[in-house]
TrEMBL record:
Domain HpcH/HpaI aldolase/citrate lyase, residue spans: 14-238
Entry cofactors: Mg(2+)
Keywords assigned by UniProt, alphabetized: Lyase, Magnesium, Metal-binding
An annotated Gene Ontology molecular function: citryl-CoA lyase activity
Pfam families named among the record's database cross-references: HpcH_HpaI
Protein name: Citrate lyase subunit beta/citryl-CoA lyase
Enzymatic class: lyase
Native source species: Pseudonocardia parietis
InterPro entries the UniProt entry points to: Aldolase/citrate-lyase_domain, Citrate_lyase_beta/mcl1/mcl2, Pyrv/PenolPyrv_kinase-like_dom, Pyrv_kinase-like_dom_sf
Length: 309
């Protein structure tokens, strides 16, 4: 079964217990908003948050935003109720469920089977998609199997907060990983996640950036993630949506260059050559693939100029 194609440059977190934040989240312009039943909700609030989330999904105007929830992990007592109650009440108003702390493919199967039964019982007119958080060391070790575990799965998300705890990294001490560690402490995890996702034909989304008063740092983090192949990044505050949407979208110059690259390659091909030059740079089949990636992203955002001859 084919997966829906969605933009996910920005994925905005909103605690499902805090109803007063919902309208602002719905209007934030994020590609995806998830109402969080997990760690942004106090444990005592998690059950009461389910009907609040379902009502908001049904009743607010979300525009083009993908509507999601983050359920609790499959090893918690909330997982089953999160899925059953929210899907039953929200029905087609829920597009995606984010599953946290996935450690193995079987965690995804559990949610997949439950959803299949619910969709049939409720007679839902559409399939609910999944995204999963890789934020446990076991999950990273199993990431290839997890990425291929379900045809509902649309993206892997790197959860750097829990991952650092799971790995035992010293980020909450006087040790400053940015100053004292040569390189990106999370490069290995990020690389594995993005490669596993792309190899499985799905997308990778980068981690939350906790300092919401540091827009420059956030933008740099978006740029680095985009350079590695991540499709987007989490936003933990509405102010992070606009920079993520901006950085993860191809610029008009990139789109124009991609069109010229495709045209140059086609001309070379028609003349029986496999490579040519454009502005003093080589254009071969690999550049054609880069250009097609840019054009696919642009088309998804409605910014592509259409066919190249
Ligand atoms: C997200 O859930 C994280 O742990 O970073
Ligand atoms: Mg987490």
């Amino acid at each position: 079964m084919s997966r829906p194609v969605r933009a996910r440059r920005s994925e905005l977190a909103t605690p499902a217990s805090n109803e007063h934040m919902f309208a602002k989240a719905a209007a934030a312009g994020a590609d995806l908003v998830f109402l969080d039943l997990e760690d942004a909700c106090a444990p005592a609030e998690r059950e009461a948050a389910r009907p609040k989330a379902a009502r908001a999904l049904r009743e607010l105007d979300w525009g083009a935003t993908t509507r999601a929830i983050r359920m609790n992990g499959v090893d918690t007592r909330w997982a089953h109720g999160d899925v059953i109650e929210v899907v039953t009440a929200a029905r087609e108003a829920l597009d995606v469920i984010i599953v946290p702390k996935v450690r193995a493919a079987r965690d995804v199967w559990w949610v997949d089977v439950l959803l299949t039964q619910l969709e049939e019982t409720l007679g839902l007119g559409k399939r609910i998609g999944l995204e999963v958080l890789i934020e446990e060391v076991e999950g990273l070790q199993e990431v290839d199997a997890i990425a291929r575990s379900s045809d509902r799965l649309e993206a892997l998300i790197f959860g750097a907060g829990d991952f650092s705890a799971s790995q035992g990294a010293r980020v909450d001490t006087n040790f400053d990983p940015r100053a004292d560690y040569p390189g990106d402490l999370w490069h290995y995890a990020r690389s594995r996640i993005v490669v596993a996702a792309r190899a499985a034909g799905i997308e990778a989304v980068d981690a939350p950036y906790p300092n919401y008063r540091d827009p420059d740092g956030y933008r740099t983090a978006c740029e680095r993630a985009g350079a590695m192949g991540f499709a987007g990044k989490w936003a933990i505050h509405p102010s992070q949506v606009e920079p993520a949407n901006d950085v993860f979208a191809p610029t008009p110059e990139e789109i124009a260059h991609a069109r010229r690259t495709v045209a140059a390659y086609r001309d070379a091909e028609a003349a029986g050559r496999g490579a040519t030059g454009l502005d003093g740079m080589l254009v071969d089949a690999a550049h054609l693939r880069h250009a097609e990636t840019v054009r696919t992203k642009a088309a998804l955002l409605g910014r592509d100029g259409g066919e190249v001859r």
